Fold:
Amino acid sequence: MIAIIITIMVLELRAPAQPTLAAVLKVAPVFVSYALSFLVAAIMWVNHHHLIHAVHSVTARLLWSNLYLLFWMSLVPFVTDFIGKNYREPMAVALYGLDLCLCASGFYLLRLELIHQSRHDFAMTEYHERIQRKNVLSGALYLLSAPLAYFSIYVSFFIFALIPAMYFLPETKLVDAGETI
Structure:
């Protein structure tokens, strides 16, 4: 599903009509929004992959939480296109932040289920809770970016760049049954 989301985003990119620097600069905001969203989607893909490998049992709560996440992720191509074409408009910037906040809430729900499933394994519960704190911080920052867009789109853009950077900071690895999480 996430690969399809990335594919849809790249299909929205259009090459400039003219082979000039001015024409390339005119489409630069669309490309930058794509590059940012690609990075965000890649981080979501990696996190989702790790989440799924930590599942002990497939429950209704897990399935519905995953569908909730995938719904908001499926809107990423739309908000990416919207912000790329309207990058100076607070509404487009706010909508982008709001959708990514809702994606973060989907990860939060999935992680809650994993915390529940690993409640008898202290190390795994502690690991999920630590990751959950980063997820909550990301979601809160994305949520904050929405109203801030109406005061300064640049602050919102800073938040959009900050969050992926947070996910590139090294984390402690937990090895469980031969798998690195």
Residues 2-12+29-180 form one domain. Strands lie at 175-176, 179-180. Confidence is low (pLDDT under 50) at residues 174-181.
